[in-house]
Amino acid sequence: MTTATDDTMMEIAERTADALAAAGMVFIEDDKLGALAATLRGFFIAARVDFDRADAD
């Protein structure tokens, strides 16, 4: 399983932003991608999505 590093979370955020833009839903500026990555990481943790967190105990 891949560790969800900051780089991985940024890639997920970029792909999510691209998908939202392609669907015509919203355009997320590049300077907001860090916030999207943090939000997605928080969601994964809160939803107990099974992924290998870099900050896991």
List the helices and strands and how they pair.
Layout lengths: L2 E2 L1 H17 L10 H14 L5 E2 L4
Parallel strand pairs: 1-2
Relevant terms:
single chain, 57 residues, mainly alpha, two-stranded parallel ribbon, 2 helices, 7% strand
Regions with pLDDT < 50 over 5+ consecutive residues? none
Domains, number: 1
What's the rounded overall pLDDT mean? 86
Strand order in the largest sheet: 1-2
Distance between the termini: 16 Å
- Decide which structural class fits the backbone: mainly alpha
Let me know the number of strands. 2
Strand content: 5-15%
Tell me the major beta sheet: 2 strands, parallel
Can you tell me the overall shape? globular
Can you write the helix and strand succession as a string? EHHE
Polypeptide structure, described:
The protein has two helices and two strands; from the N terminus they run βααβ. The protein has 57 residues and is mainly α. It has one domain. The protein is globular and about 30 Å long.
Short description:
This protein has 57 residues and is mainly alpha-helical.
